[in-house]
Amino acid sequence: MSLALLIESQPVLLAFLGVFGLVIGSFLNVVIYRLPKMMQADWQHECAVYLGQPESEAIEPMSLATPNSQCPACARPIRALENIPVVSFLLLGGRCRGCQAAISWRYPLVELLTALLFVYAAYRFGPSLQLCGALIVISLLIALTGIDADTQLLPDSLTLPLLWIGLLCNSGEGLFTDLQSAVLGAAAGYGVLWGVFWLFKLITGKEGMGYGDFKLLAALGAWFGWQALPLIILLSSVVGTVFGLCRMVLLRQYRDAPMAFGPFLALAGLLTLFWRDGLELMLGIVSVY
Description:
mainly alpha
């Protein structure tokens, strides 16, 4: 497939990014599952070194590439034909071929979500540098959402690259905002949640959020500028509050039960990426460009 054909034909571009999105979504599933385990292994190694204790030999070395994927229930290796995004899940009936253990629906959902967002980004931005930036934002925000939902962690290895790539993409003419607004957005994004964190802690004596949330909002500020921060904060707060209330009522969880805030920031970031002008108009938020 030639690059010229991708650029000139929108249907071909949409189809290509749909398939590409499925593949990237499959990789993001690996990142969501393995990165927290890799971080835990690193922490255990650092603790063992600091305390002068021998490391546990039971911890198997892990990276995003090795070992090969396997069933978490029976440790059966997953073959290449069993690892085709979405298709393999459907053909296997959502169960491991070896032990018949159920496979989480999250795997195909992440793959489909990534593909759909890639396709919509292509439709929204067309063949452009903005599209390349959008694909990066989408991929990292999906990975951060999955990890935070599982572990309430937002790894620096994802949030910091998201921040720096945002600043680089907005250097020069800027893909989504000018460089000055991006730098101010990064600083203000971190500072706003940092201030809320300490104010909440002084009043209640508790920590309401983690430092990863500060870095994620800083990254979104780097991508979309300080002008977008009121919209992102409002959207994430409203959606987070509604979700928290529904969780209390439907799942009967206590008000003080911990809840990850990163997914709501990520959702607000994606909404800002695609529909910033319309949302600001609808919500009555005035931005200065």
